[in-house]
Sequence to fold (654 residues):
Amino acid sequence: MIDMFLLGFEHILSFNLLLNMFLGVLAGIIAGAIPGFTITMAIILTLPFTFAMSPTVGIATMLGVFVGGLSGGLITAALLGIPGTPSAVATTFDAFPMVRNGQPGRALGIGIWASFFGSLLSMVLLITLAPQVANLAMKIGPWEYFSLIVFALTIIASVTGDSVIKGLMAGLLGLLIATIGLDPLSGTARFTFGIGFLEAGVPFLTVLIGIFAVSRLLSELENKEEVKQGEELVTGKIKFEIFTSLKEVLGQPINLIRSSLLGALIGAIPGAGASIANILAYDQAKKGSKHPEKFGTGIPDGIIASEAGNNSTAGGGLIPMIALGIPGSAVSAVMLAALQIHGINPGPMLIINNPEIVGTIFVGFFIATIFMLLIQFWGARLFLKITHIPKYILVPTVMALCVIGSYLLNNRYSDLYILFVMGVIGYFLKKYNFSLAPVILGVILGPIAETNLRRAMMTSQDWTLFFTRPISLGFLILGLLSIMYSIWQNYSVKKKANNT
Amino acid sequence: MGELIVGILFLILSLIIFFQAGNLPDSSYEPLGPAGFPRIIVLAMGILSIFLIVKKLKSMDLSQAGLDFREIFKEYKLIFITLVNFLIYILIMRYIGFRISTFIFVFTTQLLLGPRKEKKYLIIGSIALVISLGSYYFFQNYLGVIFPAGIFFE
Fold:
């Protein structure tokens, strides 16, 4: 083990590698901050550059992009209320209200530190737990998968906002949106109503940009007098104190560790990843909190949970990749491809055959996290200036960026029509207090749930298997507990409010 | 009132999808088929929307209900303007190309939303220029994205 670290350090400590890694982290942060530009896209774009590099330099650069990207979504999520990547959806819940309350520096500072610690903790887990977690992930079949998704869907009940009915309806709408297009198993076109381009389906990121970004921008225009006078997002002087926010983050060790553990676990399960982990961590933080009613008003707890939760998926996602050669996410799949191009086959033999690669991943992860911290703090003062741009400039500009982002995904013109429709739907849902996060959860989880449910039914018509397979049953029980707990919590919060 | 309308729309949507799903082919080797999962979704959605409608009807004073479209337009004028601009932007992009349509959208929307007096043409003009041309050349050159070029550049 120690030898591997030394080997890793030996490879890392070269100017060439460190420079590439630094650029990777920087590129990742920028990509993460732009809505529509995903971490996966950034990694894919990095791939051709790594052909010319040695395998260790290549993998370290990609790690940089990965870690940077996971923390980049924070910037737009906090300052504009628009998640830069799907992994920052839950960050908007509390970071944006905090910015609105006039503390953008505090929100960003807390988010950066939480990302840093989440990343570090997941690295420790990666090194110590890799083989064990990888074994567990191997036991997951369609039944377990479906039950896991059912569990994840029950989170909807706790992020519903003021009404459980409306929250659930929003979640179902998301599930329904995801069924548009070709059916994943039989290839039949569903609910296209004769519109040709709908056969390609509704891309999840277009829904995210439309529902969150466009609708948010539109509601910025509701107060027309203020907009006309050139109102800014945040008025007043901005404070940015690095050490105060460090203290705030370290003041919540349980939240920090729980969110990081969850994130690492979700990251290790193939297919799930950061887009679910941030919401799950937020949900758990709310459930474990003594003051759940304050969530969503701009408290540090929510930011810490979401940011530690999404950044820690990086370490978790690498666990099955290193131990088994199975990619836990699209990002690690591209990293696997990069290794294979160089003739290195990841899998159980990787640690024995190429200890320098594993060592570089371990040490590189640590250095990427440090770089992320440095760049974020150095850049934060610059990013914070965004909040001083008048709305009449900000809204059209960011809207044009949304169009570019949606177009970039597939180079498909028709996606822009979908963007428009989603923007309008999102605005009305927001206007009538339907919470938006369930829609996104539904769109992400819907296809996974349907495919696994139908696959399980095809394998065996016996539906009791969902309850008799232990891991599957475990997830279902967790789901039931999660719903009951949210209902109880909702009830007691309301009771408390009535008493005072 | 708005929530009631949203509830009714959700109900109509559930009904449409439920009956549409009936047209989807069955599968002999798969018990659930393409229609099964969507039907489960809209069944739950229909029930919940009826709940919402009933709840809103109970709590609402029907005599006060009414929609004054002129009033709504006045209140949400800026949003209407922006949405219409946005739609036109998307629709004309395929004809006049990405660069020109983006410039026009960013420029005119800033102009229409901005302060009535002292228009800062220089600032909003240069922002529109940077967004339209900058993003075009960046993404085209570095990422190989092909934006609609439009009739003027073909």
Notes: The helical segments of chain B are 2-22, 33-59, 69-75, 77-113, 121-143.
